[in-house]
Amino acid sequence: MWALTSNNKQRKTFFTVAIGLILFAFVGAPLIPVIIGFFSQASVPSTASQVGDVTKLQQQIQGYETVLKREPNNVNALNNLAQLRMELGQPAQAIELLERLRKLNAADPRYTLSLGDAYLKTSQFDKASLEFDKLLAISADYAPALLGKGLALQGMGKKNEAQVQFDRAIKASPLEMKEKIKEIALKNAVPKTATPLSTEPSKK
To answer: Which domains does the chain show, CATH number per domain?
Structure first.
């Protein structure tokens, strides 16, 4: 089965990502979007309405921070606060929250996936690679983890190894995600070397 955990609701997110892939929400508090916008940085909104949205998000952040001062292990507040940080293009500030969530929910692979995504966005490719390895140890054909592993390897300069993971991700991805994963993989693919033209003079 492709998904590591079951989900019963899909939710939308408003922030812009360069190569977003899929968003999930699960039973209970909203969970962090899964594998979204690798290497993307959300730009600061410029229109009045967008600025108003950011102001609202910042107010929500203050609210969740207040909750966490009273209840440091409140999973709902940690989830929502980490998601807001990601939506505002602040993955570095989301990492500590995700690490706490993973510690509180060690058996839930979704936090590992989100943590790997945050490490990618902060160019901590070695740490991202380790997180995706943990997921692949559970399910060797988990397409988002294969894709994330490929991006991490590419970030470390291991382009050929990255290409192997991209190819595996395309092959393993479910039909509804295949085109998007293929798009990301091809965008990051290793260019194929053209066969050099012969310089030898033709024999008559």
So the answer is: 123-185 (1.25.40)
Give the other-Cβ count within 10 Å of 21's Cβ: 22
Measured in degrees and rounded to the nearest 5, phi and psi for residue 25 equal -135, 150
Q: Whole-prediction pTM value?
A: 0.69
Dist CA 97 CA 9 (whole Å): 23
Q: For residue range 154-202, what is the model confidence (pLDDT) as tens digits?
A: 999 999 999 999 999 999 988 888 888 888 888 877 776 544 554 555 5
Neighbours of 39 (CB within 10 A): 14
CA distance 181 to 20: 10
8 Å CB contact between 13 and 23: yes
- Reported as a single tens digit per residue, the pLDDT across 73-114 is 999 999 999 989 988 889 999 999 999 999 998 888 888 999
